[in-house]
Specification:
By secondary structure, the chain is an alpha+beta fold. Helix content is 36%, strand content 25%. The protein has six helices and six strands, in the order E-E-H-H-H-E-E-H-E-E-H-H. Strand 5 and strand 6 form a beta hairpin. Helix 1 runs antiparallel to helix 3 and helix 3 runs antiparallel to helix 4. The radius of gyration is 16 Å and the shape is globular.
Length: 162
Amino acid sequence: MPETHIGKPRKPAKEGSSLRAVGWARSLPLHSEVKEARDWARDHLDALGWTTTAPETVDAVLLTVSELVTNAHVHAHSNAQLVMTWDEQCLHISVHDASSEPPVPRGVSTDRVGGRGMFLVDALADEWEARSCRHGKSVVACFHAPAAAAAGHRTPDDARKQ
């Protein structure tokens, strides 16, 4: 299956630059609660120091986690594989599910109760994209560190010691 990208465009990495990153992964079965994903993500954001230095960004990240995991469960009828990666420039939130159908941001409508998840992700994340792959797709949302978080963030080594 050819790879498909949709979403806000990502900036290419600087050529020749090395990258240090720390990451966490969690599998969320189809019938697990989305709150479990938010609580797990909040714990790791706290380990990075973001809950005190960038609370608005934490709120945006947690809402994005909720929306992407909900999409995996409700629309893909699938388990969700949640991965968070911090590379000192961007916090990447990736959710993989078993559906090859790309997410589609829909406009706000008073005729529907739901259907605003990707609209919210698009509004909250600095960048996002969906990548199709052999066993479904991954949706990745990136959040650039706010100045306060970047100045006061813990290093990946500090976060690993938590």
